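Lab notebook, bench 4. The sequencing result for the construct came back, and we need a structural model before the next group meeting so we can plan mutations. Quick request posted to the team channel:

Model the 3D structure of this chain.
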Amino acid sequence: MNIPDLRQLAHDTRSMREAGITLLIASAVLLLFLLVPFGPKTVPVEPVATKIVPDSFTNIPLQANAVIVYDLVTKETLYAKNADAQLPLASLTKLLTVYAALTILSPETPIIIPESAVSIDGPHTFSVGQTFSLSDLARLTLTASLNDGAVAIASATAERESRSESEMLAGAAAALNLSQTYAVNGSGLDVNTIISGGYGSARDLARLAGAIVEKAPYIAEATTQSFAKAVSAGGTLFSVKNTDPIIGSVQRLLLSKTGYTDLAGGNLVLVFDAGINHPIAVVVLGSSLPERFTDGVALVAATIAHFAGVASL
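Done. Here's the predicted structure in token form:
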């Protein structure tokens, strides 16, 4: 074999060796591509612990047929039991009477005690012809749940509107969108053994109480005191006792109103400040005479625990 043939053979051998090496490298790269995942490395995520907020309203022993705990700021229902059931209101009807009067009359409007007021059932505080400002008479009436005072207020308000008392009260309920609320009279006294003087739901009453606190805090504040006092236009001083014995047990109380008749059972409305300008309404309907107060205290305590983030105090 001559020299050129040897050179050609060496060249061909080197080319084959280089081609083999190239093929080997390409195979290795392909194998690496197939076996090794590309892209960002997945980092295991630690599970985030979820904080369990205890339910402060669980297992509260309640006698009432219907209750609600209603946040008057956020419009949130914190707790409810039959909150939309329409039930007899008894003297909680007086809240509607006073609210209706305040939307039609000025707080300084003189209210004269009529004959119809002193002839109503129950103990009588006033005499025919005595005169009070609406504001003073409302404070006395709501604090001591005075039937004669409620009749006088309802009568004067209806007369100003040239409407019947029931029509006047229906107008006030409609203005607040209280769809479950209507009243036959201004006092809430049972009409007979089967018809109550007023009906409404716990939800409606919570909103009504909140409206009074907002519209007339000076009247609502009187219901949080042991006694309410006022002087008639003739100079007679009146001092009446609060019908709610638990006012001293509820901190930052803004309003309190009791109610009781044979048809309604024991009713109670409380509005208290759960923080800074954070009013909460608690309504109890259809409880017993004494247990409306234990129901109310239990719901207030549960509400405070709720905002503290604990199961109970």
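Confidence is low (pLDDT under 50) at residues 1-7, 9-13, 28-36.
Will bring this to the meeting.
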